[in-house]
Design goal:
By secondary structure, this protein is an alpha/beta fold. The chain is built from six helices and seven strands, in the order βαβαβαβαβαβαβ. Strands 3-2-1-4-5-6-7 form a seven-stranded parallel beta sheet, sandwiched between helices. The protein starts with 21 loop residues before the first strand and ends in a 6-residue tail after the last strand.
């Protein structure tokens, strides 16, 4: 993929840098995922988003099409292998081969580990970690066959740091870091880059640890900017991890 220019995300010849590329964004109907999908569409990509909220999916799909991008929204549970297989088949049938996968689907559950249930553990791990495995596994064979691609996993600074009440959430994001690093080593010889974006606190509907001061948190668009940087780096470049923090400390 070509490098992004300094002017409005276009190359000097006026061509959008992701023109002709198909991107799949999981959890793409709201928050960070929605911002990422809109950003990639503005750079010329055709976009598939998935999620569980049909109304939000439809709303975001309409916004994507307003950019001029080809776009589809698919209701899917990315913690289920059959749903994922059907999702990938439909995206590639309707839009074409997936060149860029953004594993963004995620949730938060916070509190002391000893107060959490087995059901909560399973639900969070399935959403935050198992989904990354399932969707990547479904997309990678095609990328290998075509000799390249990008997988960008939305992790968290909680995947590198610990805090009281963050036990199972941190465990899931540390898992994303480990999985991503191993996949990167396995796939780079095939021309496939696997990267992580690790944001701090972001102003979204995400189930966090309490109210957030809007002046001391990131915006979803900040995360989308980091994803765009990874997606438009030069062919010979491999940015493996981006750590993203609010400028002002809470």
């Amino acid at each position: 993929m070509a490098s992004i220019s300094e002017t409005n995300g276009f190359r000097e010849n006026g061509k959008k840098p992701l023109a002709g590329k198909v991107a799949l964004v999981t959890g793409g109907s709201r928050g960070i995922g929605r911002a990422i999908a809109l950003k990639l569409a503005s750079l010329g990509a055709d976009i598939a988003i998935c999620g569980r909220d049909a109304a939000k999916l439809s709303e975001t799909e309409a916004k994507l099409r307003e950019t001029g991008a080809r776009a589809i929204a698919i209701a899917a549970d990315v913690t289920r292998g059959n749903d994922v297989a059907q999702l990938v088949r439909r995206v590639e049938s309707e839009l074409g081969p997936i060149a860029l996968l953004v594993n963004n689907a995620g949730m938060g559950l916070f509190g002391p580990v000893h107060e959490k249930s087995e059901e909560e553990w399973d639900r969070l791990m399935n959403t935050n970690l198992k989904s990354v495995f399932l969707v990547s596994r479904a997309v990678v064979p095609g990328m290998i066959k075509r000799g390249g691609g990008d997988i960008i996993n939305i992790s968290s600074l909680a995947g590198k740091n610990v805090f009281a009440g963050g036990g199972i959430y941190c465990a899931s994001k540390w898992g994303v870091q480990g999985l991503s690093g191993c996949m990167a080593e396995e796939l780079r010889e095939h021309g496939i880059r696997v990267s992580t974006v690790c944001p701090g606190s972001v102003a979204t509907e995400f189930s966090g640890r309490g109210p957030k001061d809007a002046t001391k948190v990131l915006k979803p668009e900040d995360v989308a900017h980091a994803v765009a940087m990874l997606a438009t780096q030069g062919d010979q470049s491999f940015l493996s991890t981006v750590e993203l923090r609010p400028l002002r400390k809470a």
